[in-house]
Structures are given as structure tokens and as C-alpha cells.
Design brief:
Strand content: 25-35%
Structural class: alpha+beta
Order of helices and strands: EEHEHHEEEEEHEHHHHEHEEEEEEEEEEE
Largest sheet: 7 strands, mixed
Radius of gyration: 23 Å
Shape: globular
Number of domains: 2
Strand order of the largest sheet: 1-11-12-2-3-5-4
Distance between the termini: 65 Å
Number of helices: 9
CATH class of the largest domain: Alpha Beta
Length: about 450
């Protein structure tokens, strides 16, 4: 566990701070919702009333209702939690970039519309660890993407429960980190990414201390008396891979286990001991040691480190807390906010779309766009019409395929004819480019 001074992670030389030219805010939430429906108001969870608004929201939920009937229905339409979050964030100009679900595990990523064209290489995956890896009630789901050229990965986990399974939790987490892989050769594994956020119901408990001591320490505000016996803290002292992850100080009350709709710890006959089960960690990719010979792999690693120096990224945790006001679950949500200072690897969308202006819906529209040098076109590219305030990429009103003869060469200006459709976004697995709003009229 790091001190306040250690809550910032650097992957660049301090003399290079003048090169940083972009500042963004990341808001993260982890919450075991215990199959509950979302509360009527999630604005406190998202801290929408703060002056420094977020640029990215990453929300990881565990134990979303996954009964067979409910899970199948959620495959057809968005689940109730996704709806609640999308409805709230769309009003603030956020778009759901992607999501991934494995039974009760759900991970959602939202971004301000202005950032959408600069989010690329999106990919999701999952790993089961329940019932010897055959069942997805436990495990991890992840989303990775490039944000202005910086590869980041978010891993939402739900690990094994109960006091005596600390070693099993460590083994599960290590297995998830090793098992998940992605398509790009330079970021095949989770730990290849420049920044990794690992969070969720990690299920680590407070060892050794009895129920009375734990509760009295909480009630008296002496949380520091419990830190040393927190199982995750203890395991970090033994496990090298955990030592690469950082975490803010646990200055909030343990978030498990509560009587529902209250701030009272478990009063049932089981009287479970309170614990910090719900955590948010992050890891900055360490530099590889200097190569001792001309091995190709070592040269490639050194080249990657040079890239880190040229395009630095600084992650600073601004807040690490819980929200005790929500009572729908026996867990309380945990919230972390981060400042991301980075030097952009690029500042131009892959596709530039010329503004259309006013368009009559009774006539064909002609859209003009150009592409950047590193744009990889596909016959699956399509152009969609979206209403202002759309919530996700799936909210298009209409779309047209980009025909094979319309696939552009580099810097070639292309016109696309669309009947009863207007492009607001050019999309495949991510947004390539976006134009401004157009006015659609009837003749």
C-alpha cells in the first residue's frame, strides 16, 4: 500500500515533464451489486457535481443479475445497469465505447464524444476461474484500447470468496493476468500495456483480528490498526507480481458486509467480519533492463522503452473512497479518480469527415472523407446516422456500408452517397472519425 507521496506513478524522466501536453481525468467505480437493480439516481456514484469533470468513465460491476432468463434477455437488449449509466452519462456528452460481460461480471467504458475518434484498437476478453475454470461466476473481464496512442487495459475481477482462500485469490489473479491475450503483437498480454488498472471484488479479508476489534477500530476511526492484516497488503509483501501494482491508502471504511439499505455491518447470525474486498489497483509498465547483447527481443524491448520516453504518461490518483449512501447491495461501491497527463502520440483522427451542414432527408446525401496513412480499411466499414445525444455505437438510426470501390487510398478524397442516412461517425471496431452535428430537414 503506498503513501500519499507514492500515489503517483512515473514512466518518464522527470526532466521531460515539459513535453506533456494533455491532461485528462479518469473516473473508476467497482461495485458488487449482489444481483440488485440499479438505484434510481447514480449521479453520486459518478460524482457528476464535481467541478473537474471526468473524460473517461470505467465501471466494473460484479454479481449483476445473471439468472438464466435474465441473462438471455440481457443478450438481446442492454441490461438495466448499462441503461441507467448510459442514460445518465449521455446527458453529459458521454458515449459508451464498449462493454464486456461474463455472467455477473460487467465492465463498461464511456468517453466524452470529443475523445472518441482518438480511441482505437479496442478489444475485450474474459477468463473463467469458477469450478476449475469452467464456470464464469468468478474470473475477470477486460477491455483494452489505445488512448491517443497510449495502450491501456482495464481488468474487472471477481475472485474466490471466504477468509481462508487468500492464496487461491492470488493464484486466480495471476492466472487471469497470464491467460488473457490480445491480437496486437506489441501488447499480446495484459501486462504488456503501458498502464493496467486491476479492480473489482478481489475478496481479500482482514486476517487474525476478531470481529469486536475490527468493528471498534472502524467505529473509532482508527483504520490504520487494520491495514497490516489486510490480506492483499500481506500478499503484496510475498508476491513479486503484486508488488508492481500500486494502490491508494485505505482511508475509507471496509465496504463489506452490510445489511442492505443501511450503513450497519452484517447483523445476521453469521456476523461476517468487515473487509476491504473491493479494490482499485494500477500498474505502470516497468522499463526492461538494458540489453547485454544483440538479441532481437531485447532490442525490441529497448525500442519500446525509447517510445515510452518520447511519449510519456503520468498517472496520479486524486481520490480513493467509497460511497456509503448506496444501500441496494451488501457491498458499498468504491470510487477512484485519476489524472492522466500524457503526450499525445497522434492528434489527428484516422478519418477526416467534411461537415455536411444542412441535408434534406428526402434527398441523397453525399459525404466526403479522407483517411490517414495508417488507416486499415475493410469491407466491413460502415457509415451511420446518429441522433444528437446518442448513448453508444449501437444507437444508430440508419447506416450504409462503404462499398469496395469506395475504400480510399491514402489522402484520397472519397465521396459516399447515402440515401436517407447521414454520417455522424465512421465506425468499425472503433470510431475512426466524426463530424459535427448536421441539420436534417424535410423537403
Amino acid at each position: 500500500m503506498s503513501s500519499d507521496d507514492e500515489a503517483s506513478s512515473f514512466i518518464y524522466n522527470k526532466e521531460m515533464t515539459t513535453n506533456i501536453n494533455k491532461y485528462d481525468r479518469l473516473h473508476m467505480v467497482t461495485w458488487n451489486v449482489a444481483t440488485a437493480e440499479p438505484p434510481a439516481d447514480v449521479s453520486s456514484l459518478l460524482q457528476l457535481d464535481v467541478q473537474a469533470a471526468a473524460d473517461l468513465y470505467v465501471i466494473g460491476l460484479q454479481e449483476v443479475n445473471a439468472t438464466p432468463v435474465r441473462f438471455i434477455s440481457d443478450l438481446m437488449v442492454e441490461d438495466s445497469w448499462s441503461h441507467a449509466l448510459m442514460d445518465t452519462l449521455a446527458l453529459r456528452g458521454f458515449v459508451k465505447i464498449t462493454s464486456v460481460r461474463m455472467q455477473g461480471l460487467l465492465l463498461l467504458v464511456f468517453a466524452k464524444q470529443i475523445h472518441v475518434p482518438y480511441i482505437r484498437k479496442i478489444q475485450t476478453t474474459y477468463t473463467r476461474t469458477g469450478i476449475f475454470g469452467y464456470w464464469g461466476n468468478k474470473g475477470g473481464v477486460s477491455v483494452r484500447f489505445s488512448f491517443y496512442g497510449h495502450m491501456v487495459c482495464f481488468l474487472n475481477c471477481h475472485l474466490a470468496a471466504h477468509m481462508n482462500y487468500a492464496l487461491e485469490r492470488v493464484d486466480e489473479l495471476e492466472y487471469i493476468l497470464e491467460a488473457q491475450d490480445f491480437d496486437l503483437s506489441d501488447t499480446t498480454n495484459i501486462l504488456d500495456h503501458k498502464v493496467v488498472f486491476c479492480f473489482g471484488d478481489l475478496n481479500f479479508r482482514i486476517a487474525d483480528h476478531g470481529l469486536h476489534f475490527i468493528r471498534s477500530s472502524i467505529n473509532s476511526g482508527r483504520l490504520n490498526l487494520l491495514w497490516s492484516r489486510d490480506q492483499l497488503t500481506m500478499m503484496k509483501m510475498k508476491e513479486p507480481f503484486l508488488q508492481e501494482f500500486e494502490e491508494g491508502q485505505l482511508n475509507f471504511k471496509p465496504t463489506y458486509k452490510f445489511d442492505r439499505n443501511s450503513e450497519t455491518y452484517d447483523s445476521s447470525g453469521k456476523k461476517r467480519k468487515p473487509a476491504w474486498t473491493d479494490r482499485i489497483l494500477w500498474r505502470i509498465k516497468p522499463k526492461a533492463p538494458a540489453p547485454e547483447d544483440d538479441d532481437d527481443d531485447e532490442r525490441a524491448s529497448a525500442s519500446a522503452d525509447d517510445d515510452l520516453d518520447e511519449y510519456p504518461l503520468l498517472v496520479t490518483q486524486d481520490k480513493y473512497t467509497s460511497d456509503m449512501s448506496y444501500g441496494v447491495s451488501d457491498h458499498k461501491p468504491v470510487i477512484a479518480t485519476f489524472s492522466l497527463e500524457l503526450r499525445k502520440c497522434f492528434d489527428t483522427p484516422l478519418v477526416y469527415i467534411s461537415p455536411l451542414g444542412v441535408w434534406s432527408a428526402d434527398q441523397d446525401a453525399h459525404l466526403t472523407y479522407t483517411v490517414q496513412e495508417d488507416f486499415m480499411s475493410s469491407t466491413w466499414d460502415w457509415i451511420g446516422l446518429y441522433r444528437a445525444g446518442f448513448k453508444s455505437a449501437s444507437d444508430y438510426e440508419a447506416f450504409v456500408w462503404v462499398r469496395g470501390d469506395e475504400l480510399p487510398e491514402i489522402n484520397e478524397v472519397i465521396q459516399v452517397r447515402a440515401s436517407e442516412a447521414f454520417v455522424s461517425l465512421c465506425w468499425v471496431e472503433r470510431v475512426f472519425g466524426a463530424d459535427g452535428l448536421c441539420q436534417v430537414t424535410s423537403a
